[in-house]
């Protein structure tokens, strides 16, 4: 990889789970990282990034920026060669999906890329999209050629009322492509990661990834998990993908970044193997009919349509483009899950075994 260390790079949403590892790797490469954050005065949020910066050759500089404020990224982007646009809310428990998910995703992307259009030095933009921009429901797999999700597939089943997070990622990525095609100063490379797991730079991250691993150990899911497939990638592998997308000459287009085609029962089994004696990790699956019946009462995200179109469906994506064009390698599923779970224990978010 040919990395020019003289010009800074911008990371939007630098306080986030995925961005934390991206910033760490960039600092390890000796780069000047412009970290755009909502509140640069909040010491709790910056503590972990500061720790990383102290132990790495690169330099971090903080800039205040909000996705929804026009012109907000001007100072942060000045003189940058690369923009990593990771900021976008990843949460499912929302009251107003338009305001809480779609606006920051789509308008935020537009805002960041409009700034890139004004900054001559920006030559590459890496957008952290998602596999959620490829599919809305697992049932969509049946409509794909060869029953596998590839970079050619777009999510057409999500909407504001159904899988709103996936909808937000779809319209945001579409906005990015539209804007990229309307100019010629910078190249867009999109990453489409599946569910991200693995220890965070900040053990107290608020990304939905943390809720999922926590709920597998705190008893929330002790009666069982749905038989539902999804893809999974380690947060550290995803950080490598960001660097490759930014600095490899041939990086282009959309890129599925997903280490494993897996499902909830396999995820639980991998955790059970190491932690099952001390933690109420689910051992069985909840039948689809029961989830259909009670799902909406347990969790408003588990609507009957979500249950119908996802439970008892496998998930399969083809990550071969990432291996071929980005030289990606993926660590074992076990490492991502068990190390993430251990971080939950070490940081006191799951009870230490033997203590009440
Ligand atoms: P995260 O930890 O919640 O990070 C989201 C970041 O976006 C935070 O830094 C947050 O800032 C920032 N943000 C949200 N609203 C903002 C606003 N209005 N203005 C400025 N910044 C704002 O989630 P994550 O899991 O790291 O997700 C990062 C990216 O990866 C997202 O684009 C997400 O869609 C994508 N992704 C994640 C996964 C996954 O499984 N985690 C999978 C596929 C794709 P604050 O810290 O101030 O809240």
How would you describe this protein?
By secondary structure, the protein is an alpha/beta fold. It has a single domain (9-286, 297-346), classed as NAD(P)-binding Rossmann-like Domain (Rossmann fold, 3-Layer(aba) Sandwich), CATH 3.40.50.720. Helices cover 39% and strands 15% of the residues. The strands form 3 sheets. Strands 3-2-1-4-5-6-10 form a 7-stranded parallel β-sheet, with helices on both faces. A 3-stranded mixed β-sheet has the order 7-9-11. Strands 8-12 form a two-stranded parallel ribbon. The longest helix has 22 residues, at 97-118. The chain is globular and about 55 Å long. The N and C termini lie far apart (50 Å). The mean pLDDT is 95.
Bound molecules: NADP nicotinamide-adenine-dinucleotide phosphate
- What is the class in the CATH system? Alpha Beta
Number of strands: 12
Name the beta content range. 15-25%
Given the structure, what is the number of helices? 12
User: Looking at this structure, what is the CATH superfamily?
Assistant: NAD(P)-binding Rossmann-like Domain
What's the pLDDT, averaged over the residues?
95
Which residue ranges are poorly predicted, with pLDDT under 50 across at least 5 consecutive positions? none
| Largest sheet data | 7 strands, parallel
Computed over alpha carbons, the radius of gyration is 20 Å
Helical content, roughly?
A: 25-40%
What's the domain count?
A: 1
């Amino acid at each position: 990889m040919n990395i020019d260390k003289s010009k800074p790079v911008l990371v939007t949403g630098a306080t986030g789970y995925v961005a934390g590892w991206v910033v760490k790797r960039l600092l390890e490469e000796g780069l000047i990282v412009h970290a755009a954050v909502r509140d640069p005065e909040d010491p709790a949020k910056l503590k972990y990034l500061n720790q990383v910066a102290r132990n790495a050759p690169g330099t971090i500089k903080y800039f205040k920026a909000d996705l929804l404020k026009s012109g907000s990224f001007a100072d942060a982007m000045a003189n940058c060669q690369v923009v990593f646009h990771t900021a976008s809310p990843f949460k499912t428990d929302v009251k107003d999906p338009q305001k809480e998910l779609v606006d920051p995703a789509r308008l935020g992307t537009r805002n960041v890329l409009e700034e890139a259009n004004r900054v001559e030095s920006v030559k590459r933009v890496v957008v952290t999209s998602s596999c959620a921009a490829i599919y809305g429901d697992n049932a969509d797999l049946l409509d794909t050629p060869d029953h596998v999700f590839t970079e050619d597939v777009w999510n057409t089943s999500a909407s504001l009322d159904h899988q709103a997070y996936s909808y937000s990622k779809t319209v945001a990525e579409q906005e990015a492509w539209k804007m990229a095609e309307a100019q010629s100063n910078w190249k867009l490379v999109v990453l489409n990661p599946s569910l991200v797991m693995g220890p965070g730079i900040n053990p107290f991250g608020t990304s939905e990834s943390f809720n999922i691993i926590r709920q597998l150990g705190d008893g929330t899911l002790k009666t069982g998990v749905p038989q539902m497939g999804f893809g999974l990638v380690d947060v550290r592998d995803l950080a490598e993908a960001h660097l490759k997308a930014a600095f490899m000459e041939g990086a282009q287009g959309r890129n599925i970044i997903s280490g494993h085609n897996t499902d909830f029962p396999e995820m639980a089994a991998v955790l059970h193997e190491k932690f099952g004696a001390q933690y109420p990790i689910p051992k069985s699956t909840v039948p689809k009919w029961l989830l259909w019946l009670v799902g909406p009462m347990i969790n408003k995200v588990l609507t009957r349509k979500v249950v119908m179109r996802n439970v008892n469906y496998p998930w399969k994506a083809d990550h071969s483009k990432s291996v071929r064009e980005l030289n990606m390698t993926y660590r074992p599923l076990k490492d991502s899950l068990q190390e993430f779970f251990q971080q939950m224990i070490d940081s006191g978010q799951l009870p230490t075994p033997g203590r009440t």
